[in-house]
Design a protein that fits this description.
The chain has 16 helices and nine strands. The chain is an alpha/beta fold. Strand 8 and strand 9 form a beta hairpin. Helix 6 (about 150-155) runs parallel beside helix 8 (about 185-195) and helix 14 (about 290-310) runs antiparallel to helix 15 (about 315-330). The longest helix is centred in the C-terminal third of the chain and has 23 residues, at about 230-255.
Length: about 350
């Protein structure tokens, strides 16, 4: 194994926050070693189909002694790209450091087998029993309190990595502080998400419940253009709201009066009571539009699409999300086939 393989790092796993911290450490170490910031190049697999990444790795810079080249979403590499990278790793440039990043826990052994074990790191998703304490400690360190219900909602609606949790929590604290408060409640989390974005997964669900298919697509496209249309957190938010809806419908089916049912709604065994009048109106419309069996089918479809979107590149996600909106609103949760058999040119709008 080449001694220059110390210039290769592989960062794996779903925990984006910790991977981000490690990447900053690598950059800081290079700054210390060379006395200046390295020149940074970032690539995704679809941006180096013709070997563009190797130009950045091999060509010395006029402005910096060293180059930091980052390859993200490596799980989407084609077989030919893996072969080319494996050849490079055998004899890498001594003037560049390559960092390969993937959300998966494993990459081809052709790549990782040539990298020193201590430089292949897997950043696992935070265990469920650590998430609540992590969030509480984050708020406590900033002299904020947060209720148990608020922690539950935050964890349901924010992607499960410390990077997203930290960023959203800091914004939430600023929002609460602007009102002179120092304690975050469930109502405050929902109010923050609804009022800090013109469109959000909440307004998307509101129109799925009350509006037209065309209006839902308009909101979806607005979220995508604004950068808020990442499939994983969006589907997580929709899943939480449809689980809330199915809980309400089950209570109503059991004979509970409406006023009692909205107070006893639960999501994943945790209280998710519907308290705001506006939300009651949204869920009343949703109950009328989506019967219990339909809501259960929709939850199943969201779960299937969540898996699919995690397996594919981000460039396809807008079409996939658009297709899902049609399955929810037009097909009422019924889908005879999964994405593997769909044609995006003919089926994107169902």
């Amino acid at each position: 194994m080449s001694t220059e393989n110390k210039r290769i790092h592989v960062l794996l796993g779903p925990e984006a926050g910790e991977k981000g911290v490690r990447l900053k450490e690598i950059r800081a170490n290079l700054r210390k070693e060379f006395g200046a910031d390295p020149e940074i190049h970032r690539f995704y697999p679809f941006e180096t189909l013709n070997g563009e990444i190797f130009t950045a790795l091999s060509n010395n810079s006029l402005f910096s002694e060293h180059r930091l080249v980052i390859l993200s979403q490596a799980e989407n590499l084609q077989a030919s790209q893996i072969k080319e990278l494996a050849e490079y790793i055998k004899e890498p440039s001594d003037t560049a450091t390559l960092v390969i990043i993937s959300a998966e826990n494993y990459l081809s052994g052709k790549l990782t087998g040539q990298v020193p074990k201590q430089q292949v790191q897997v950043f696992w998703e935070m265990f469920d029993n650590r998430k609540h304490e992590w969030v509480r400690n984050l708020f406590s360190t900033a002299n904020f309190g947060i209720t148990a219900d608020a922690v539950e909602v935050l964890l349901e609606l924010v992607e499960n990595n410390t990077q997203e949790l930290r960023a959203t929590s800091q914004q939430l604290m600023q929002f609460i502080a602007s009102d002179g408060g120092d304690t975050v409640t469930e109502e405050a989390v929902l109010r923050y998400i609804q009022h800090t974005r013109q469109e959000s997964v909440f307004s998307l669900f509101e129109h799925i419940a009350t509006g037209s298919y065309e209006r839902v697509l308009d909101i979806l496209h607005t979220l995508i253009r604004s950068g808020e249309g990442d499939a994983v957190p969006m589907l997580g938010g929709l899943l939480w709201q449809f689980r809330r809806l199915v809980s309400l419908e089950e209570l109503l089916e059991q004979g509970y009066p409406w006023d009692d049912a909205v107070k006893q709604v639960k999501v994943m065994g945790k209280s998710a009571a519907i308290r705001r009048k506006k939300d009651e109106g949204t869920y009343r419309s949703a109950v009328q539009r989506y019967p219990l069996d339909v809501t259960r089918s929709i939850i199943a479809r969201i779960g299937e699409y969540d898996i699919k979107t995690r397996e594919m590149g981000t460039e396809l996600q807008p079409m996939v999300l658009e297709q899902l909106m049609g399955i929810i609103m037009v097909k009422q949760g019924q889908c005879p086939r999964l994405l593997g058999g769909a044609s995006f040119s003919t089926d994107a709008r169902i």
